[in-house]
## 1
Amino acid sequence: MKAAIFSQYGDTEATQLTSSHPEPQVADQQVLVAVQAVGLNRIDAIIRAGYLHQMFPVSMPAVLGGDFSGTVRAVGAQVTGVQVGDEVYGQAGLLMGGSGALAELAAAPAAKLARKPATLSMAEAAAFPLAGSSAIQALEEHLQLQPNQKVLIHGGAGGIGSIAIQLAKHLGAQVVTTVAGEDRDFVRSLGADEVIDYKTQDFTTRAQEFDAVLVTAPEALAGSYGVLKTGGVLVALAGEVDAEQAQRHEVTAVQQMSQASSEQLNRLAELVDNGAIKPRIDRAFPFAEVKEAFSYFEQQHPKGKVVVTL
């Protein structure tokens, strides 16, 4: 089958296209999916670069990609809830117990997929699994964001940030976000109440103002403890939280390891189909240009998600 693989760790040049990769075998708790679109994530580039190889070694050649949308081709013996022909979305990444998403066929854990939101195209659905689940996990589960609370979302123009802004507004919060100046209009279109240009403005001058902070970039973490009210909560998706800093500022700091689950994906589909959230695709590439897609994703600053279509 056709697949985007890597046979050695490296940068985008390590990405290879093949038409002869073996089809994945489906375990009892997996689903075989005919993939139609794949959303790129930072973890995809991190795995290919080899930064996690000591903790999570992979057998090569390995298939790239995690987030996907597609149609169920077969189900494992212990799988319930989906059947052949269903349109689904979820995660099939190597670290998530899948076979890799950037291929004609992918084996995905049944616990990490759900039926695709009815109102979305396949490309739009592929942009959602990890970013959308990350936003739900952070805002609803860890921050437990309430109406009229004030939240600072770093990196509001990115894949996670753009969804988090929409979710926070749906939950009734007041949203402040940090972006580069050229992204101001984009995040305002998502619902941001106030925009801070991190290139020219210092968000740390807003001391003791926020009930919650979502950190999506490691360079923003150190200064984020001090902008929280006493008793506020910080969730870090990037960088390592500092317990001493949190204690000194009398706030709670949570280190989030994001993973999509069927429950979160079903919640996300509900929000999407109710019109509360919509994915923003910066650019879509055909499968033949997957190397170019990774180059664009890693070297530019996409507004929303980058998707590869099969």
Note: The two ends are 12 Å apart (CA to CA).
## 2
Amino acid sequence: MDFSSLLPDIKPWVQSLAQVWPAPIIKASSWMFPIIQTFHLLALVTLGGAVLLPSLRLMGAGMTSVSPASIEKTVRPWMWAALIVLVLTGLLMGLVNPMRLYTRPGFLIKMIALAAALIFSFGVVGPLSRCHGAASGATRIWAIAGLIVWIAAILVFASSFGAAPGSFHVICVGWLVVMGLGSRTTRIVLGAITALIAIGVGIVTYGVFTPLEDYDIVMEINRWTLRCSALLVAGFALWEFVRPRPNAPTGNAMANPTLARLAGLGAILAWFTVAAAGRWIGLGGGAG
């Protein structure tokens, strides 16, 4: 699935974008595109920090001695600046090769995940941080909307030919969050199950079958392993961030700790989905 299959009638318009100023100038230069791409990546890194700090704080990790409101206020200008640079550089890169974006599943996934990430960051994490975890009705609605949009992005990611393997990055991020912030028991159990899965898949796909001779079987095993791993990580994540925990020190307790932890997790996963999908724009799916 990509924009070319969803909106086939706009193909002539998309093709014409390559002639829109300043695309011809960028194409003719040997250094402009690399510079634009560098600023795009720097903005993405800056945005990552601006997302992680308040999200981790809502999850009870990171700068716990500082109030969530203070962290959110500090990173807000950086987030806006990074978003502006991302949009501008993204538009310039898109004008240079619009058909690549039009025919790549990764770009569609990135746009859907970006909508979810913006909803989580500005509609959920921001208000929760400013209100120390207290959630209004609007915040809860935004949280549900962000979750639905993010799940849609993941479903497209996991089912798109040429891009589906990229969903493994998102699973890894979820795994790292659970392992880093989960209880000791969770780390031991999840780590042991992960090791068993990795060893089992390795034996089956390289000992029982041969990737070159049994490619379709091996790929099907890998696909189901990925799906089961996603459910496994999701289950442990829900357990860790919904279960009751000891009360935080006075002054640091969140009004709604469960929602705060889940909102932080949602924002992190949504933004990493954006980054993971972006990596696969140039690698998978569609005709150029």
Note: Residues 27 and 96 are 7 Å apart (CA to CA).
## 3
Amino acid sequence: MFDISRSQFTLLVVILWMALSMIASAEDFCAKTANDLLTSCNQGAESDYSLALGKCDNLTTAGKRKTCQSQAATGRSDDLQSCTEQYQVRQGACSRFGPAPYAPVIDAKNFVSQITNPYFPLIPGTTFVYEGQTSQGLSHTDFIVTNNTKVILGVTCTEVHDVVKLNGEVVEDTLDWFAQDKDGNVWYFGENTHELEGGLITTIDGTFTAGVNSAKPGIIMKAHPAIGDFYRQEFDLDNAEDYADVTGLTETVNVPYGSFNNCLKTSETTPLEPDLLEDKYYCTGVGNTLTIDRVTGEKSELIQIN
């Protein structure tokens, strides 16, 4: 046994507390989150595989069971590969975001009533119309800035009704909620989205509301974007995780609505779709004018503002 004085004991406690604090502060919470999601994704793939095998076991012939089991194994392999790809995207994002947890401070008093950011103006009563040819046909989007509002985390948000049609049939119907802070940043507080087929809802994946089930708002447009800015546009783990990277400030854009100079260019990705990479162009006083899928080359161009 060692005899130490009260002052020495106090000093040891202080040193231990400081050491533990340094260890905690050195933790990479972004990387830990990515690791947790990888584990969750892998376990989900294994769970789906077990369920698929259960369905195979209930088939009536050996041949059908064998074919089913082979398909289940292929599905498991594809799902696990997708988990790895999602993890790699999150890892790459963490190298830029840094180790801190994502925890934006939202104070309702810091928000204004109108969205006037020159790269993303949302004036109620305005409709932005976009069109583009895809491998499945003509895509038509009405981005309607409504007079409706929704209060989220104490912030009064502007509601946008986003309707996507493919060859004249509605395939996506979404309500989005945006608000601008006093510095001019436009925040994205959530969405209520439906994908449809034949008039029937097939999924509501991507739906989230900031403040519900740990979901948080992201920034859809910065007040003063600069080359190299990399930020979260939304944050609801394994449901809504879009990233934006500012890659240009002096772009020229030519679309049916008009020609524009000195436009902002962002490259947008999400770990939920590792193969997705879109370039979006925003022009002063107009907003989004052009979106290009860098994988397929497909475009969505602004054709009209009502």
Note: The chain is about 30% helix and 40% strand.
## 4
Amino acid sequence: MSSLQRYSSFLSFWTLAVMLLSGSSPGAKRPKTLQIYAIDVEGGQATLIVSPSGQSLLVDTGWPGFNGRDAARIVAAGKAAGIQQIDYVVITHYHRDHVGGTPQLADRMPIKVFMDHGPNQEDSEVTREDYAAYQKLLNTSNHVVLRPGDGVPLKDATVRVLTAAGERLPDPLPAAGTANPYCSSEPETPVDNSENARSVGLLVTYGKFRFLDLGDLTKRKELEMACPNNMLGTIDLFLVSHHGSDQSNTKALVYALHPTAAIIDNGAHKGGSAAVWDIVHASPGLQDLWQLHYAVDAGPAHNSPEELIANPEENCQGKYIRVTAQSNGTFTVLNSQNGFHKTYHK
């Protein structure tokens, strides 16, 4: 046997040994996963969800302007996820940091279906302006108005609409509906007539894995689902509402959800409230709180360790946080800035 043959045999032996020790075998298939990308759009929202079969759902499109920065970051995340089009875009509400980037994204990537809560209901000039720009796209695209109880037909996963246009599910989800002991300490919350309170809220389920995204839903609407009974049950991953703003994220809701991990899609100076950080960080069962940005105004005591922050510097490259979830409820969160990752088991 030649030296090259002996070396090749040696490599084959150790490759097999490593596979056996790791519990895999030659030809073994990796488990199918649901992918979630929390894309950095500097304090707005753009959350890309890709099913195991490759269908895609994008929740919101970030800001307009900035030379197409947010659209470019969404396209880059799509490329990393292996997709070339967006099957469904859900616009949670018509504030600029959620809908503003839609025209620029549509110029860069095919979008098959737009979904939203229906007409704009906020009387403000900037919101009317952004809604009008969005409406122009609807004239040439498929469009669906969502209502609580509706679903988004994403293959291999269940996407259920919980809130839309100020309305919510009338009945608890399966296995939910128990009395919430955290309601008694909640103060009265004001009525919110902005688009935030009309956010589309989604629960994404893949087997035993549950991911919650309520857009910018504000406190009064949160408490309608949390008190006196918890209508949503518990979840595995929570996208902290409203970028971690203290207009949202009541203790009664967050504690009742009992998330294993959470992600804040904050900016350096937008969202990431110290008070909200405390609530989410202290919620029962939470293992880790991940952040898209270091929250400068919150200070060191109200930021997670650097390995959990995708963009620790204010002037950043827009790194994302990626989640891969298995149907048995196991999921892994990856910080694309430093490669740090952690796996959470059911």
Note: The radius of gyration is 21 Å.
